[in-house]
Specification:
Elements: H1 7-20, H2 23-28, E1 38-42, H3 46-53, E2 60-65, H4 75-80, E3 87-95, E4 101-108, E5 127-130, H5 134-143, E6 147-148, E7 153-154, E8 164-169, E9 175-180
Parallel strand pairs: 1-4, 5-9
Antiparallel strand pairs: 2-3, 3-4, 6-8, 7-8, 8-9
Amino acid sequence: MKKPICHAVAALALVISSVAAAPSARAQGVPTLRGHDHTGVTVPTMKEGLDFFVGIMGCKEAMSFGPFSDPHGTFMQDTLNVNPRAEIKQITMVRCGTGSNIELFEYASPDQKTVLPKNSDVGGYHIAFYVDDIKKAAAYLQAHGVKTLAGPLPVKEGPAAGQTILYFLTPWGMQCELITYPHGMAYEKTAKVKLWSPKTGK
């Protein structure tokens, strides 16, 4: 087995399985939960991932490690729910401003799919980046050849009023979003629980 993934990952899998098996823990929330640490995404190659997230978005590369595989056993399947012959070629963690971290994976796997889910698909996802000036940010992305969708679109009604959003795509088609709410959102006036914001860091 090449460098086995750190014991912390295996321990985390055990914690997750024990929480899932305990209805009372699910109802009360995960003990000692602090917050969202990172979002993991698989990129076509690490170079493509870093060219975009570091070279275009301006995130900062923090650390890299790997590769990891288990040529004969089921470690990868048991720990990460992937094909037992899957290999993680490299993992790189990047930090994007004052938001949580992004973990980039480069995988090789016999059953790897390259079709990305849409937002409407179960399992669909996107990463949103807070900006102070969304028009300036949109112009920057467009000048660097990034495909942007309709917008920026201001939200004028409902609890999210005050937002302006713009969806865009990475070069390999992953969905991302620019968002700004310089004066807050309507829901905040009466909310007992407010969303964490990278604008304020709380």
